Amino acid sequence: MKLHCNIKVNNRLFTTNVIRRKSLRSIIAIGRQTVKNMDIYLLLQTLQNKHGTKYKVNNNVDKIYIKFINEGKATISFIEPPHDLIIQSDKIQLKSFIHILKLAIIKKVDPSVLDISNLNPKCMSSAPKIKVVINKSSEYPTLEGFPRTTEELYLVGLNRKSFDRQILRLQSLRILNLSNNQISSLPNELGTLQHLQELILSQNRLDRAFKWVWLNQVAIRSNLKLLDISNNLLYKLPQQIGKLESLVNLKASQNMLSFLPQSLGNLHNLKYLDLSKNKLRYLPGSIRNLHLITVDVSNNDFSSVHYALYSKSKINVPSLTECAATSFLKTRCSYDASIIPFTLVKYLDEAKYCLCGNPCFHYYLRKFVSFDCNIATNIIKSTESTLLPFDCYFCSSKCVYYAMFCK
Questions:
Q1: CB of 28 within 8 A of CB of 52?
Q2: Where is the PIF1/LRR1 pleckstrin homology domain positioned along the sequence (predicted)?
Q3: Which of these ranges, 48-62, 149-163, 263-277, has the smallest mean pLDDT?
Q4: From CA 262, how far away is CA 11, in angstroms rounded?
Q5: Angle at 59 (CA atoms; ends 56, 64), nearest 5 degrees
Q6: Phi, psi angles (nearest 5°) of residue 166
Q7: Distances (CA, A) of 79 to 75, 84, 111, 188, 253
Q8: SS3 12
Q9: How high is the pLDDT of residue 22?
Q10: How far is 390 from 407, CA to CA, in rounded Å?
Q11: Distance CA 251, CA 276 (A)
Q12: What is the pLDDT of residues 295-313, one digit of tens each?
């Protein structure tokens, strides 16, 4: 059995890291050295050492570290020579390789099964295929699938109506571009891709998507930095979008949006926001808490707000449930239906946010207020007015006073 991976070799005799070794693209294989010799060896090859280095497995493996194997990382420590092989690879293939290695160590695998050819030098290509671009439907790898090493996948303008579940096998995927298709829904498992940082879904039919549960997954909430959902005929954005805690760039232009969720104010890392060419009449007050660099709100309908019609007061003593929910959301701890009941998840997702940053639920004062365009370093708009309307929720009379007289 062989494994394509990146390996860093650490010599334990070197007490100081005078020279820091870099991780090298490698192939490691398990097999027998000769027909008569039943001992099992591990062969490590790199582009610099194509003949490879052989490590005896029998009675020579000190320890195997697999604490981070779900992240595609493992370390094999040998007794002689005193080397640590620090491996990074596809987690599924790595798990299979480590499983075979463990069976070989305890002699639970028949050595004759491990082909001798595994220990012959392998032909190493100059680089693994990490970028895949499909421009025509005829080029689509329906049967063979995508290379497991794919980090960037571009499936643009193929008129696909459904999401290809083969993509979920690409555990190293960083960039996924599905723009200019007819995709109307995304699977829950999309949110489990550990390394996905850029997701481009422009020019699809996400207006037909009733559920956005993939946004609830921990991996995508922690890693996604760019989300492009422009030109999808969207009438509203899901509340879950406020859970993308690492999001830096959100593109939602050329939709049918007339309002935005207050949860946008939770995107504390957001720097670039494109809301142009929608039907927005106002902006959520919660985004005034963000430190934006560029905001594009051009070609919207801000002039149609009638402020007097929207004032609403429900300031009162909050319930115990609301107090507990408010305290919990202040911790910014992640939550989902696997931790708390789904009814509580839904309750927490529907929180509004005061200009002070505090969440509120049933007791608040809501007021439409015009503020100066100081929500970003660079703001792009269609009118010459220096004011923009904001839909503001206030958790107390003190916050109302501060917003009205100290803004």
A1: no
A2: 1-108
A3: 48-62
A4: 54
A5: 85
A6: -60, -30
A7: 13, 9, 21, 44, 59
A8: coil
A9: 78
A10: 13
A11: 9
A12: 999 999 887 665 544 555 6
Distance between CA atoms of residues 399 and 363, nearest Å? 14
Contact present, 9 and 17 (Cβ < 8 Å): no
57 near 30, Cβ under 8 Å? yes
Tokens of 25: 């693209």
pTM > 0.70: yes
% residues pLDDT > 90 (the chain): 49
Is 209 a domain residue?
Answer: yes
Q: Mention every residue, 6+ apart, whose C-beta is less than 8 A from residue 243.
A: 215, 216, 221, 263, 266, 334
Alpha-carbon torsion (227, 231, 237, 240), positive or negative: negative
Beta carbons of 28 and 7 less than 8 angstroms apart: yes
**Domains identified in the chain, total number:** 3
Amino acid residing at 83: H
In this structure, the answer to whether residues 136 and 283 fall within a common structural domain is: yes
User: What is the C-alpha to C-alpha distance for residues 223 and 221, in angstroms, rounded to an integer?
Assistant: 6
Q: Which residues contact 249 (CB under 8 A, 6 or more apart)?
A: 225, 226, 227, 270, 271, 272
pLDDT of 66 reads 94
Specify whether the CB–CB gap between 329 and 309 falls below 8 A: no
The pair of three-digit structure tokens given for residue 32, joined into one six-digit string: 């027998």
Is residue 212 in some structural domain? yes
- Do the beta carbons of residue 179 and residue 156 sit within 8 Å? yes
Q: Is 73 helix (H, G, I), strand (E, B) or coil?
A: strand
Q: Are 252 and 233 in contact (CB under 8 A)?
A: no
For residue 236, give the CATH number of its domain: 3.80.10.10
Indicate the DSSP class of residue 43: E
| Distance, first Cα to last Cα, the chain | 67
In 33-98, beta strands by DSSP E = 40-46, 53-56, 61-65, 73-78, 83-88
> At which residue do the structure tokens 């916050």 appear?
399
Instruction: Give the separation between CA 361 and CA 353, rounded to whole angstroms.
Output: 9
pLDDT value, residue 211: 81
Give CA–CA dist 1/324, Å, rounded. 54
Map residue 289 onto helix, strand or coil: helix
